[in-house]
Amino acid sequence: KEGVEAQSETVWRQADRYGVPRMCLINKMDKLGADFDFSFKSLRARLGANAIAIQIPIGFGNDFKGIIDLMNMKAMYWTAEDQGVNVTIKDIPADLQDTAELWRGEMIEKIAEIDDSLTEKFLTDPNTITVEELKASLRRSVIALKCFPVLCGSALKYVGIQSVLDAVIEYLPNPTERPDVVGVDPNDPSVHMSRPHSEDAPFSALVFKVVADVAGTLTYIRVYSGKLEKGMRVLNPVNGRKENVSRLYEMHAQNRTALDATGPGQIVAVVGLKDSFTGDTLCDQDKPIILERMTFPEPVISMSIEPQTADDKKKLGEALTTIRREDPSFRSNYNEETGETIISGMGELHLEIIKNKLVRDMKIGVNVGKPRVSYRETITGMAKDVRGLFKKQTGGRGQYGDAVVTIRPITAEEAEAEELDMENGVVFVDAVPGGAIPREFIPSVEYGIRQAAASGVIGGYPVINVRVDLVFGSSHDVDSNQIAFEQAGAMAFREAFTRAGPALLEPIMKVVITTPDEFFGNVSGDVASRRGQIIDSEMRGASRQITAEVPLSELFGYTTALRSMTQGRAAASMEPLTYRQMPERLKLEVLANQ
């Protein structure tokens, strides 16, 4: 009844990014207020999807009984008693016959619009198009990302779920119908490689999930090529470690079936991997490849955490390592200067869930500090030809490193357009004239620059969106070494940064609020008071959905405040959106309170 929600939009954008053919299921048709028409229209309006309904519901809410299959023009019914195992197929109810004809006519028209081989038949006599032709045409179009079939059902009541699985087989591509999986050579990332979806090809797979289990860590993988057998030894080319595959399981919710081997297209859980994390590649030891890695957003909020007892202290480090393996968006580190353990995540709720997991599931007593916003530093201007000279001569062999840099702002999009490698928000460009700095010291200068950027300049926050060109320098035949050039690079970067208009960036959250319309004024006023900006507002049934962009620092305790101002009837979700420059007054406050 809410139509396309914020999280669905996020998932859809990811699928677009990776070119994934897909179908849509309008679920919860048994829910009070369910509206198939509204949800279907929102697919087209909010996602820009060429959605084609191949089913429509029989009834809504408590009256939801089954679905009408528009391909075969039959009514299908299930019962919850046997968990939807058996389906009853009947003629379409007379009162829905005309509605079904209208939806089927639109389905045929949409399919024919995409497929030239059906266009002429449709214009001449649509009734001559067979079901087999429609299904074959729809499959081709789905694989080509030209359209997206829409089904309906109720997972809770087991209605329509088998037809979803049937549609997966009928309309989505099998592994052999997908392009070869691509990756890079671990020894030279500039060399692109590929693997066909074949058992005869060298083995390659991607780790997409890690779960702590009583039987040992379960590492979920998707096999792209080759064959994986129980007892095999495979390579993780990301970290260079070799891993043993002790056991293989086919998973079905909490149930598992032991396997001896698996192949392309299969999703399985592996036991025995000790050093593989989400996003890592597993491959043949003799034919290494690194598949395209998953990207995870940087944490935007941190807090200190400390164990309550000596026994808790022993368990905390191992527990945090386990959580990091399961959740790549979570970070933890130990600050040796303050003696604090700092945990970082995607929001206040994220860290609250981590804390509860430690206390409730892992039985570790912890105390946590107040949440802290993870700010970032950047520059607003350019600083040219800034020198960093590290020189120490005390009679014996000394230290000498000399680096000259030019620094300027750059966005991730600009770096990608210029084919520059941005690592942790910083682009390094070697523009030194030949011989000014010996080649073996260039990586040392880059390392010094990146270390300085990671620890910040004006407030100790990581630097992002900065390009550093190493333009000149000099060396000493005896006194120059790697450490000296690391120091020179760091010195040049810090000085250039202070000259280039340093600024503090704060994380901005995308906040989606669903509230009864009568509270719209209160909610919008509160958003404005938090330095937020309303981007969109629209009615969703009896509720209003508000999309806003709000600084994270203004959102601590927001869920409680929202419930209070709406009598507990509103809800909100939020996700990191971007970083934006802070007003000067607030920047000075943040730096003063460090």
Could you walk me through the main structural features you see in this protein, from its secondary elements to its overall organization?
With 594 residues, the protein is an alpha+beta fold. It folds into five domains: 6-173, P-loop containing nucleotide triphosphate hydrolases (Rossmann fold, 3-Layer(aba) Sandwich), CATH 3.40.50; 181-291, Elongation Factor Tu (Ef-tu), domain 3 (Beta Barrel); 301-374, Alpha-Beta Plaits, CATH 3.30.70.870; 378-500, 2-Layer Sandwich (Ribosomal Protein S5, domain 2), CATH 3.30.230.10; 504-592, Alpha-Beta Plaits (2-Layer Sandwich), CATH 3.30.70. It is built from 14 helices and 35 strands. A six-stranded antiparallel β-sheet has the order 16-15-18-11-10-19, with no helix packed on it. Strands 21, 22, 23, 24 and 25 form a five-stranded antiparallel β-sheet that branches. The longest helix has 18 residues, at 97-114. The chain is globular, with a radius of gyration of 29 Å. The model has no long low-confidence stretch (mean pLDDT 91).
Please describe the biggest sheet, giving its number of strands, its sense, and whether it closes into a barrel: 6 strands, antiparallel
- Secondary-structure-based class equals alpha+beta
Please give the radius of gyration in angstroms: 29 Å
Q: What average pLDDT do the residues reach?
A: 91
Number of domains: 5
How much of the sequence is in beta strands? 25-35%
Number of DSSP E strands? 35
Q: How many helices? A: 14
Ends distance: 47 Å
The CATH topology of the largest domain turns out to be Rossmann fold
Query: What's the CATH H-level homologous superfamily of the largest domain?
Result: P-loop containing nucleotide triphosphate hydrolases
CATH architecture call of the largest domain: 3-Layer(aba) Sandwich
